[in-house]
């Protein structure tokens, strides 16, 4: 049976440790709306995107310069019939050296074409992994979702 989980990879002229450090800086490339730890084995964090998507991840594998894996503990989508589609899936980043470059291979194990969110989620992961994460590794600047400031908080800050 062929695994149809979403996978993407890229290579950069940075060290595996630099790639690892960027991957574990989830607020720097995915979203500033992250609560919790994102770098140590057993850390749990919650991701939010407006009222559309939220999920809780646990770091299940952390090998500096080599690999990071997250288990999706809980998930909510507001636009799919099964709002928990990601629950129980695994997000993995594998880091290796090839021909003097560092390759980052991203796999969302269990995110498959049968999921209602597959097209939108694959497109989003493509942007955040191949665009934002790659940029964070190579330039030090990613393009994460920005933290939303509640209207009453914004009004006080004027």
UniProtKB/TrEMBL annotation:
Protein name according to UniProt: Activator of Hsp90 ATPase-like protein
Q: Which residues form the Activator of Hsp90 ATPase homologue 1/2-like C-terminal domain?
A: 16-114
Q: Which SUPFAM superfamilies match?
A: Bet v1-like
Family the entry assigns? Belongs to the AHA1 family.
Bilayer-spanning residue ranges = none
Q: Which domain of life is it from?
A: Bacteria
Q: Which InterPro entries match?
A: ASHA1/2-like_C, START-like_dom_sf
């Amino acid at each position: 049976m062929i695994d149809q989980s979403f996978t993407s990879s890229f290579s950069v002229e940075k060290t595996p440790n630099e790639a690892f450090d960027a991957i574990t800086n989830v607020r720097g490339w995915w979203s500033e709306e992250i609560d919790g730890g994102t770098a140590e084995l057993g850390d749990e964090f919650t991701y939010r995107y407006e009222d559309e998507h939220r999920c809780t991840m646990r770091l299940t594998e952390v090998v500096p310069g080599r690999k990071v894996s997250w288990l999706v503990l809980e998930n909510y989508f507001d636009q799919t019939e099964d709002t928990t589609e990601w629950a129980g899936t695994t997000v993995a980043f594998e880091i290796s050296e090839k021909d003097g470059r560092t390759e980052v291979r991203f796999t969302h194990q269990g995110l498959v074409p049968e999921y209602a969110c597959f097209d939108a989620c694959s497109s989003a992961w493509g942007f955040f992994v191949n665009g934002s994460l790659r940029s964070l590794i190579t330039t030090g600047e990613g393009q994460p979702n920005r933290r939303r400031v509640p209207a009453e908080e914004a009004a006080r800050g004027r």
